[in-house]
Amino acid sequence: MNLCEVIKPGLFTTVQDLGRYGYQSYGVPVSGAMDNYAFIVANLLVGNKPNDACLEATLLGPELEFLNEAQLAITGAVLTPTINKIKAKCWMTFQVRKGDVLSFGNFKSGLRAYLAVRGGIEAPVVLGSRSTYARGGFGGFQGRPLRAGDVIKAYKPETFLRSGLSMPHHLIPIYGIKSTIEVVLGPQSDYFTETGLGTFFSSMYSVTSESDRMGYRLDGPMVEQKRSFDMVSDAVPVGAVQVPANGKPIVVMQDGQTTGGYPKVGIVITPDVSRLGQVRPNHKIKFSEISASEARVKLLKHIQGISQIKDKLEESKL
Amino acid sequence: MYQTTRYMPVGDKALLVEFGNIISLDINRKVHALNLAILQLGLKGVVECVPTYRSLLVYYDPVEVGYEQLVLRLRELENRLKGFRVPIQKRMIEVPTIYGGEYGSDLGHIAKHHNLDPEEVIQLHSDREYIVYMIGFVAGFPYLGEVADEIATPRRKTPRLQVPAGSVGIAEKQTGIYPIESPGGWQIIGQTHLRFFNTQRNPPTLVQPGDIVKFKPIEVEEFENMKVKEDESM
After folding, report:
1. Nearest to A267 among B10, B18, B139 (CB)
2. 3-state DSSP call for residue A292?
3. Which fold has domain B6-81?
């Protein structure tokens, strides 16, 4: 069914799900939501499956006119959404009718907001996912960010939720201007000097404006390498912290390249990749070291935490 | 090749199996043998693998399998593969290529760099059969090797913001083909009409690791005709 027409596209609004797995060996990046946590919660708030497609808005959200009745939820960055110019609540289910206009105002905190619709955004499955990979020109809505005049479709839900859900306050993340990001050393941390590693873990790095869904280019003290290596390219996972010859780290994000030749000082832990997805240009980050085994325990807890959210939302109905 | 294969965690849900740190056919064969074995056996908890020149990155689901457990299984598999040679696919892909001019604007630079005629560069590049070592960088980019020492050339100092799809490039001893328009730092010597990546195909890439690629020099007219046909079929 036709969900809405795009009046204004916003800065960079794309269709995403949890990503495209199984094609990195063909050079295809994972793509998918930059903040998995906010994305999954948005879906759960409208009773969807965690992987149903949503819209990801960046800093300046879109203006959308609804062409049908729908149940929605907005999570993630605080981009001040309004319905017909009346403030809309985030992190809870709400209803729109035909003709209603959703728009976004000031960006208060965070970078990316998620708009989920009951039933899920309709988009063809390309290589196993509905996520947009804009550089490759495929997935999502015609392989590109939304433009004015686009008509977005959604799968027609069999039923509407009878009562709305809301996220308990203490579980709503707060997006600050300084973040500590945990990193597991390796696989090429031995390419760096002790001083270099010391600098990396003790300095503040600012996210530059040359940062996007592919990667975050950081500015700050140079991370010293033992000598200038011509490393033989190997695989690059999401969250990899690459350091080119200029010593300025680049964190690889969801649309990043699958292989590369820069030494990787470490890998950002999965829960913190989501947090990084909310960090804006000019905001500061500090890296802290975590052992691989601690990181694994943390990830399992994180996964468990997400699986419990659904129950907590159900409780919110009472 | 390392005496002992290195196993190490990469972040919190991936495991690297590294056989060496150089570009070598023997190392690369080991990588692909292990990758194939994992694919065939469907190891529990493995989400996907990324084979490269010298290592295999194994992504796993930490709920399904623990790191230590997976290392044990992979070591066991690696031992079983010792002395086993992967059957080499003899798939050969010919890549018609228009060299030089607007299609290969760094051909002159490479010739000058090595004190050769552009014609000699073309001949040296198209004489060899290249192996596909891996696919990466952007969707469908095949890393081919190795070019003759006489034409091996470092990357451009300033990468181009836009390299057209089908561009054939050289970086050191590697050669490769840009499957889609993208930024890039390789020295561009020509262009092919062949599209190396198409989401409608399964697998989506025209060549697979282990395939042999040979470039065939063609003339402008031939290239333009084939390009029109290829674009119509997409």
Report:
1. B10
2. helix
3. Gyrase A; domain 2 (3.30.1360)
Strands (E), A158-301: 178-185, 204-211, 215-219, 234-235, 240-242, 250-252, 259-260, 264-268, 284-289
Q: Determine the CATH number of domain B92-233.
A: 2.40.100.10
Chain A residue nearest residue B173, CA to CA: A232
Statement to judge: residues A187 and A154 lie in one domain: no
Domain span at residue A10?
A: 2-167
Give contacts of A137 with chain B, Cβ < 8 Å. 180
Dump pLDDT digits (tens) for B87-131: 666 799 999 999 999 999 999 999 999 999 999 999 999 999 999
Closest partner CB to A187 (pick from B16, B67, B205) = B16
Please list every residue in chain B whose beta carbon sits closer than 8 Å to the beta carbon of residue A299: 12-13, 62
Cβ within 8 Å, pair B205-A184: no
| Phi and psi at residue A195, to the nearest 5° | -60, -45
Contacts with B28 from chain A: Cβ below 8 Å: none
Q: What are A194-220's pLDDT values in tens digits?
A: 999 999 999 999 999 999 999 999 999
In a domain, A70, yes or no: yes
Which residues in chain A have their CB less than 8 angstroms from residue B137's CB?
27, 257-260
For the stretch B144-174, pLDDT in tens is 999 999 999 988 878 888 999 999 999 999 9
Q: Cβ(A16)–Cβ(A65) under 8 Å?
A: no
Name the residue among A233, A240, A299 with its Cβ closest to that of B62: A299
Provide, for chain B, the percentages of residues in helix, strand and coil under a 3-state DSSP scheme, each rounded to the nearest 5. Answer: 30, 30, 40
Which candidate from B47, B53, B138 shows the least CB-CB separation from A27?
B138
- Does the pLDDT value for residue B135 go beyond 90? yes
Query: What pLDDT is recorded for position A315?
Result: 83
Return all residues near B171 (Cβ < 8 A) that are at least 6 apart: B153, B154, B155, B185, B186, B187
A62 and A208 assigned to the same domain: no
What does the pLDDT look like over A80-124, one tens digit per residue? 999 999 999 999 999 999 999 999 999 999 999 999 999 999 999
| CATH code at position A251 | 2.40.100.10
Judging contacts by C-beta atoms under 8 Å, the chain B residues touching residue A292 are 9, 11-12, 67
Size of interface A-B (CB pairs under 8 A): 138
